[in-house]
Specification:
Structural class: alpha/beta
Largest sheet: 5 strands, mixed
CATH superfamily of the largest domain: Resolvase, N-terminal catalytic domain
Strand content: 15-25%
Helix content: 40-55%
Number of helices: 13
Number of domains: 3
CATH topology of the largest domain: Rossmann fold
CATH class of the largest domain: Alpha Beta
Strand order of the largest sheet: 2-1-3-4-5
CATH architecture of the largest domain: 3-Layer(aba) Sandwich
Number of strands: 17
């Protein structure tokens, strides 16, 4: 008696249906077909996309192909919807002289007409797959426009889905997201946040430890300020995009989200986040005013903190800026920070008297600067299109530069949104007054703050401290010391 292989595949888009019912129906139909042709059989079944070549059961069947005389499937598209892969399988079936049986009829690949029929049906299956994907993509975008979560079957951490596919907050998980955003605003690194979450015993939905990659992804996910977005791609390029704000209740405010994005962008240009627990007030702030590289603090043999000599190479020349005692530099910086108290008090008084003209002018200047920056990048994007049409750059170059510009445009637009929110907040100054009062209160007792707390507090105002002794590190201890440079770059 001839031996047949029965191959059953349920496609991914059928998973919403009754899986067991569909598989049972297909299995019964093919077993009946095997019995009618007096065949013994082995059954291979799996759930997989027809376009995928990584199918465990099908690959196992193909390895054992020489053992069989027939292949039983419900239709050709159950073997593969990929033209190239279908042709490979067809070649293997011809080599092993295996006939295909379906409920619609037999296909003998040794006959030229049947071989052409197989190829034609595989081509139709591939075309149908593309049309199904296109319809599903459009349907997903239409659902996203209504604020429904259609990006995946699972809701992101902090949310669950209701019966209308709308996201609703799960408070037990949302506290993790709020902690991540709050600590990022305090400029705590993703690695340190991961350690804190582990210490608190806060885990993912499946009970796994939350890693730095989870935290980095969460910090950039717009879903957490109430957005649903989706896109449709063709050949790897986005051809349609949906971005809906206020689609569901946010876990963090839009202002908080945009402030975090601004901090993350700033951090690309320098180590501005806590890499480890701060043991000194100016830890991770000091940079060489000569070579622009980071300066480090160490303890000498007598137990005194000092700023190490700089020894970075610049264009094959080594920077040799001399070291310096640390505490005088710290005292100078703290003194300058305390002097800021007067400015904060003036701002607070203006807010209380509803005189926000200075702050409004400052924000409007930022808005104008960002608008010019956006106009410049958009002009660059238009020029790229012209260069591409004129053949001055290749397609790959155009796509590369275009993607870079789009990312810059996105970042500038986010900054514009943040400034708009800050301008709107000038009319509702209660929260801003509370923030300023807290800052003034901390400035009044800054000497009592422990290094870790003071370091975090200073990161609200200071981006970098440029330091140089303006003296070359050598063994000449008699030469006159130059005046030290300390320049504070305020946020």
């Amino acid at each position: 008696m001839a031996l047949a292989a029965i191959y059953l595949r349920l496609s991914r888009n059928e998973e919403q249906l009754d899986i067991d019912e569909i598989l049972t129906s297909h299995r019964n139909a093919l077993i009946k077909l095997a019995n009618q042709n007096k065949l013994t059989y082995d059954i291979y079944q799996e759930i997989s996309s027809g376009i995928s070549t990584e199918r465990t059961e099908l690959n196992l069947l193909l390895k054992k192909l020489e053992e069989y005389d027939y292949l039983l499937v419900m239709d050709i598209d159950r073997i593969s919807r990929d033209n190239a892969y279908a042709e490979q399988i067809k070649t293997m079936l011809i080599a092993e002289d295996i006939k295909i049986l379906t409920p619609q009829g037999a296909i003998d690949l040794t006959q030229e007409s049947n071989e052409m029929l197989f190829s034609f049906q595989a081509m139709l299956a591939n075309f149908e797959y593309k049309q199904i994907r296109k319809r599903l993509g459009r349907g997903r975008l239409a659902a996203a426009e209504q604020g429904r979560w259609v990006m995946s079957n699972k809701a992101p951490l902090g949310y669950s889905k209701d019966e209308n596919q709308k996201l609703i907050i799960v408070e037990e998980e949302a506290k993790i997201i709020r902690h991540i955003f709050q600590k990022t605003l305090e400029r705590v690194s993703a690695n340190e946040i991961a350690k804190q979450l582990d210490t608190l015993g806060w885990r993912s939905r499946s009970g796994k430890v939350l890693t730095t990659s989870h935290i980095c992804a969460a910090r950039k996910n717009v879903v957490y300020y109430g957005v649903v977005q989706a896109c449709r791609r063709v050949n790897g390029r986005v051809v349609d995009h949906v971005f809906v704000e206020e689609a569901h209740e946010p876990i963090v405010s839009k202002q908080t989200f945009l402030e975090v994005q601004k901090l993350l962008e700033e951090n690309k240009c320098g180590n501005h986040f806590h890499k480890k627990k701060a043991t000194r007030r100016l830890q991770n702030f000091l940079y060489c005013n000569c070579c622009r590289r980071k300066r480090y603090i160490q303890i000498d043999g007598s137990g005194t903190d000092f700023i190490k000599s700089c020894s970075y190479k610049i264009s094959n020349n080594t920077c040799k800026d001399r070291g310096h005692k640390y505490l005088p530099v710290e005292d100078y910086v703290i003194k300058k920070v305390i002097e800021k108290k007067t400015d904060f008090e003036k701002t607070l008084n203006k807010l209380k008297s509803l005189d926000t003209s200075d702050e409004e002018n400052k924000l409007n200047n930022q808005m104008n600067s960002l608008a010019k920056q956006l106009e410049k990048i958009e002009k660059r994007q238009r020029n790229l299109a012209i260069m591409r049409m004129d053949g001055e750059i290749s397609k790959s170059e155009f796509l590369k530069y275009s993607e870079e510009n789009e990312e810059q445009i996105k970042q500038v637009k986010q900054q514009i949104d943040l400034v708009k929110i800050q301008l709107e907040n000038l009319n509702n100054t209660e929260k801003e007054q509370e923030r300023l009062e807290k800052i003034i209160e901390l400035l009044g007792r800054i000497d009592t703050l422990v290094p870790e707390e003071c370091n975090t507090f200073l990161k609200r105002f200071i981006k970098k401290i440029w330091f140089s002794t303006n003296t070359t590190a050598d063994h000449n201890t008699k030469k006159e010391a130059a005046e030290v440079t300390i320049k504070i770059e305020w946020l």
